[in-house]
Specification:
Structural class: mainly beta
Order of helices and strands: EEEEEEE
Strand content: 25-35%
Distance between the termini: 60 Å
Strand order of the largest sheet: 3-4-7
Number of strands: 7
Radius of gyration: 24 Å
Shape: rod-shaped
Length: 108
Amino acid sequence: MITGNPNQWFNPNAFVLSTPGTWGTLGRGTYAGPGLADVDLSLFKRIAVSEKMNLQIRAECFNIQNRANFGTPNAIVFSNGIVSPSAGLISSTVTTSRQIQFGLKLIF
């Protein structure tokens, strides 16, 4: 049922519209969205400038693997009794792409 494609995360044709006034038969926890993984890295180097003053060089990288963390797919399968064309569509990401920043910090 899960295809893993952001254009159609699940197969909407696997569902059947239940008759009005009844509950569906899909079990709890059957539907699972995409996972989330994020790895950040920070490197620091302290250099003594004088007895009471230090310089800290910093390099920080966020989402170092540059992994696309997709948002939740559109869970509305039926619209007016037919399969919705946007069923299972993922239209956003929940984290940013890779970001790298450098900095200097004077500690006294």
